[in-house]
Specification:
The chain has two domains: 136 residues, no CATH class; 285 residues, no CATH class. The radius of gyration is 24 Å and the shape is globular. A hairpin with a 5-residue loop joins strand 2 and strand 3. It is mainly alpha-helical. It is 72% helix and 5% strand.
Length: 439
């Protein structure tokens, strides 16, 4: 049997390498790299961070004894390569066509990565484990999906200063938007078209409900419902990637944010302009300043909606919701102590990141779910909406001022998360180095 046709397991290759024999078959390298990329691609399709996708490939390859590996990841593409002991370069590329935020998937695929790095099974066994993990990823049904959408609008309708009527109408508009999103995704619509159509339907429905007296303030209704479309996570992640050094990924996400933002401006502006020809809608009262405890409760309700919408499962949901309440309480108290908005948001984001990192280590799960939940109340949804509204009304100076203030808040949130998460990662590297030193 020729060496190129020799069938060996990765375990056998490890034993052979440890005994001093350096030669391995090309098919072994190919299979190992293909599996690592396949697992990373599953993570990427669930909305995992760029660094997590890259580290997944690197850790798997290094766990099987190969140290020469290079990985390049942008939001819709993975390119990975390794150098064999004979100096041959093997490269794999996988492109992501579409994906949804699946927190349950991120947790299960990350757990599988840790298990594979610890046990180092054969590639064939690892593939079976990957198939089993893929089948075990839970996705909520339509009823929970629409409930989650309704809770997003209802919670943030109160959070941004509305009364119970604004909460109800924002929840209804958000559920309608969720249905539109699901339908457009089935038709494989692009991000611009989806955002335009959904924002148009959302704003038009909000004005229609306001015209019949179900909402006293259509602005609050639209802001609360628009949270389901606002690319707050995408904007924050783009800044995080850029600051962390993943510039291409950060720029890619930022371009997506700009495309979605333009679509939202055009969609909401068209709906508001059209609704004025059909309805006599009053903009109503100023936002109500609710007590902090009610703001926290409303934020938790909206966060629960995002958790259901993003397929968060398990006993970690209450802990994730607790992080949401903590983040907004810290932010509100910081502003009441006289700190500026960016500083208050930075402190709150740092506390959120610290809480997420601690929960991740206590429960042995990725910090992603806890961090996303804690950051939900910090998404500057109102700032984004009023920036779009100023643009619609041709108020360039006001739009620039509000836009810069909103960008400063988003940047502060990204910086707060990065400061803490980078500190934890540096400690992990230092701790790993100590363990190797004393072995």
């Amino acid at each position: 049997m020729s060496p190129s046709n020799e069938k060996i397991t990765v375990e056998a290759a490890i034993k052979r390498a440890e005994s001093g024999e350096k030669k391995r078959t090309g098919s072994e390298y190919e299979e190992l790299l293909e599996f690592a990329v396949a697992l990373a691609n599953r993570l990427q399709s669930c909305g995992a961070e760029t660094y997590r996708v890259e580290e997944t490939i690197t850790r798997i390859i290094e766990a099987y004894g190969q140290k020469k590996v290079d990985v390049f990841v942008i939001p819709n593409c993975i390119i990975a390569g390794l150098e064999t002991n004979d100096g041959e370069i093997i490269t794999k590329m996988r492109r992501l066509r579409s994906g949804d935020m699946m927190i349950d998937g991120i947790e299960k695929y990350s757990a599988l990565c840790r298990r594979i790095c610890a046990e180092r099974p054969s590639v064939a066994e690892a593939r079976k484990m990957l198939d089993e993990a893929e089948k075990s990823v839970c996705r909520y049904g339509s009823l929970i999906y629409y409930l989650g959408a309704f809770l997003i609008g209802a919670g943030f309708g109160v959070f941004f200063g509305g009364k119970w009527l604004e909460a109800l109408t924002a929840g209804l508009c958000c559920a309608l938007t969720g249905a539109t999103l699901r339908f457009s995704e089935r038709l494989h619509a692009n991000a611009f078209f989806k955002s335009f159509v959904c924002s148009f339907i959302l704003a038009f429905a909000a004005n229609a409900l306001g015209a019949i007296g179900l909402s006293g303030n259509t602005d609050i209704t639209v802001i609360g419902a628009l949270m389901i479309l606002v690319p707050g996570f995408l904007f924050t992640n783009s800044l995080r990637d850029t600051i962390y050094g993943d510039t291409m990924s950060g720029v890619n996400r930022l371009v997506q944010v700009l495309i979605i933002a333009v679509a939202l401006v055009v969609g909401t502006s068209a709906a508001v302009s059209l609704s004025r020809h059909f309805f006599n809608v009053a903009r109503g009262f100023d936002p109500v300043v609710h007590p902090i405890w009610l703001q926290c409760v409303a934020g938790v309700i909206g966060t629960l909606g995002f958790g259901l919408f993003f397929n968060m499962h398990g006993r970690g949901i209450p802990l994730a919701l607790l992080g949401s309440a903590i983040s907004w309480f810290v932010c509100s108290m910081s502003m009441r102590l006289g700190l500026s908005e960016p500083v208050a948001y930075l402190i709150a984001a740092a506390c959120s990141s610290f809480y997420a990192e601690i929960m991740a280590r206590v429960r042995k799960f990725p910090a992603t779910g806890y961090l996303l939940a804690a950051l939900v109340p910090l998404i500057p949804g109102a700032g984004i909406y009023y920036t779009m509204d100023f643009i619609r009304r041709g108020m360039g100076a006001e739009a620039w001022q509000k836009g810069m203030a909103t960008a400063a808040i988003a940047g502060a949130v990204a910086a707060g998360v990065l400061i803490v998460s980078t500190g934890f990662r540096m400690w992990g590297v230092y701790k790993k180095g100590l363990m190797k030193r004393y072995k």
